[in-house]
Specification:
With 263 residues, the protein is α/β, with parallel strands linked by helices. The protein contains 8 helices and 18 strands.
Amino acid sequence: MSAEYAETAELSVSGERIPVRVLGGPTVLIEYGGVRFLTDPTFDDPGDYPSPSGRTLTKTAPPRTSAAELGPVDVVLLSHDQHADNLDHSGRAVLAATPRTFTTPAAAERLGGGAEPLTAWQSVELPRPDGGTVTVTGAPALHGPKGSEPIVGEVTGFLLTSADLPSVYVSGDNASLELVQQIADRYGPVDTAVLFAGAPRMPVLDDALLVLDGKGAAVAAGLLGARRVVPAHCDSWAHFTEGREEIVSAFTEAGLRGRLEGP
């Protein structure tokens, strides 16, 4: 991914600007209504990371910004905690220093501390510095094909909404377009869709997609009616089978290249 793409990308709607910055892998900083949201914090160095399932995940690139350089975070939106490519050692330190973390009920129980469970369609209101509120809503997600939950575990996505701001959808590690359709039915069209991609696969699941591939991301963008798509979770890990090039190709083929953030 180019340095230009890693810089803050902004969309202006009704005079409001929503900065979204991809920091590498699934880690994205979203500044929404004066509240700093961080998705799936991963700030460790490259290396091998064994998982409880016995699979070793290999990180191939450092984060574009260290946790120290990032500065204070108000809220972490954690898709799940059970895989190192979504929450690593440094990421856990970020959780400990962050006032609130929203994640799955299973992850909240494992993590303890400030981690709060958020089920699908459940909403929580947060205060904005200007006196308004931001609503965080849990979005359903499936980390693989139907029936894969006992193997890959529970995951979640998120929606950010506010009365005077464009909506933001964060997919988390979701592979289900059926669930994207449900989200579109309730909240579409969304303004900004942060779509996790990378097309990781797992042999024990017959190499089924664990997260969207480029073509799936393009379909998801269309279903959501997203005016702007910011791809994440498509670099920095060896088990991702696709990168940004495949996403650009898929969006170009679908006639949606103009919605895709970055060069």
